[in-house]
Amino acid sequence: MDDLHAINEAVNAKAGRKLLPSIIVSLLLLALVFTTVYYIPFLFGVLVWVAIMLGIRELTRAYKIGGIEIPERVVQLAASVLLLSAWYGRVSGLAVATAIAIPNVLVLILFKGPKDFLKKATAAAFAIFYLAFLGGFILLIAHNENGVARVFTLIVLVSCNDTFAYIFGVLFGRHPLAPHISPKKTWEGLVGAIIGTTVGASLVVQYSLHKSWWIGALIGLMAVITATCGDLIESAVKRDLSIKDMGSILPGHGGVLDRIDSILFTAPAVWFVLELIKHFNLR
């Protein structure tokens, strides 16, 4: 028993998080996502909205630690408008809502006074774009006649990337990928992500979306890039604000943002590729 405990602690130390709680939370979240998207799609939309609201709460509080104060409720309201526009107005609604919401939030911040306006305005615009605009593409993927298969594809892509990067990083990780941004990420983990995500994407695209395996392989390679960049962006934000985790609401993961950072960057790319496949009727 002591040996198992020692091995578990060693894995946790190298991976930078507790493995067992992380697995349990991931499985519960996956069950919640697929139950809602399959049986009650609108409830899935609500679930995404809750995640984005919590993410904004975490980000604005992290800003505050870094000396930047922006109106949390105003940003949440703007984000809600973007998500509603994505659900009911599709991509054009999301684009127009973004173009209207961000300038209005900037004006409201200006009315509070010109001190540190550029810092506050940039932080608010980043929060709205990063969470609400990119997150809106999750709704665009789900609110579709083939929404279940599309969401399943997105989840498989991100899960394969995170899982195989984690496993290869723990087992073989020696060379840091971006030591000044995320010391735990390694080139070996990236190789594992490429292998696992390419294979996973080939299978899910072939059997879920009924397209050729090579299309899935290309989507998998794309997802590795977007998911890794999304994770690095969030790590850079945390490092810039001198915090370890965005929150502690999810045991083994940290905050909501620590869980959805890869999805936020991958969802727009997946939506775009699936639209191209549909438009050109690729097989």
Characterise this structure.
With 283 residues, this protein is mainly alpha-helical. The protein folds into 2 domains: 40-143; 146-283, no CATH class. 80% of the residues lie in helices and 3% in strands. Strands 1-2 form a two-stranded antiparallel ribbon. Helix 2 (19-39) crosses helix 3, helix 2 packs antiparallel against helix 6 (147-172) and helix 8 (213-241) runs antiparallel to helix 9. 42% of the residues are buried.
- Rg over CA atoms, rounded to whole Å, is 19 Å
Counting structural domains, the number is 2
| Succession of helices and strands | HHHHHHEEHHH
Query: Could you give the order of strands across the largest sheet?
Result: 1-2
What's the shape? globular
Helix content: over 70%
| Tally of DSSP β-strands | 2
Mean pLDDT: 89
**Total count of helical runs of at least 4 residues:** 9
Largest sheet: 2 strands, antiparallel
Computed structural class: mainly alpha
Strand portion: under 5%
**Low-confidence regions:** none
Beginning-to-end CA distance, first to last residue: 52 Å
